[in-house]
Specification:
This protein is about 45% helix and about 10% strand. It has about 260 residues and is of the alpha+beta class. The protein contains twelve helices and four strands. The chain folds into two domains: about 170 residues, Hypothetical protein, domain 2 (Endonuclease III, domain 1), CATH 1.10.340.30; about 80 residues, Endonuclease Iii, domain 2, CATH 1.10.1670.
Length: about 260
Amino acid sequence: MEEWRDGSYRRTLRLPYGHGIVALTPGDTHVGCRIALSDLRDLTVAISRCRRLLDLDADPVAVDERLRADPLLAPLVDAGPGRRVPRTVDEEEFAVRAVLGQQVSTAAARTHAARLVTAHGKPLDDPEGGLTHLFPDPDALAAVDPETLAMPRSRRATLTTLVGALAGGTLNLGVEADRTETRARLLELPGFGPWTADVIAMRALGDPDAFLPTDLGVRRAAEALGLPATPAALTARAEAWRPWRAYAVQYLWATDSHPINFLPA
């Protein structure tokens, strides 16, 4: 479904008329984008999704101006100005992967996602790389026998409830969705706490003010900077960062040495 190959992030796309494969190559001043489509009618949608993934419609000048006003955040902004919030090319896919990533490592979450894709995703050909499947849509996932999922029973229930709501149309994660109402709807689902709801709000719904005060990486970075490290106190301090708290999260996360913060060799 996705890979890093020859200096590019490559992944498959489920599109209205067919499927596609996109290769995004970071450069010094731009990101190169190559798209292969099974149906050219999907070109505009594919480009739009890539722009959304890279958060290219953000206003980094306005974001950095607000965040730089906090003297403890200012050094992070000055060291790496213009940070974007990585979004997604598929909101429903991201929500599923957020559930798969609950209380497990990044590597384990990727393993869960790969198994799901291989078992239930639609196969495709990739002449230029190693991509093999599309991520399964909610209808396909709703048909999966929960007992075949290698995860705790409680997380199975969370996943099946989520995909049931997506497939049944009672949960809308599209760009047109009301963010406040959708977050509230997510919190009504079993197994959904504030962290899962807010990371979906940040990356799937595109909420520029979504905040993750309970996230361990955010709290560690805040403490190292001299910011409050408890969720309540950090949330109070972050009031001054509105309406760009999601970008503050990116600056805080970027201080960590986790491999996810570095391009593959």
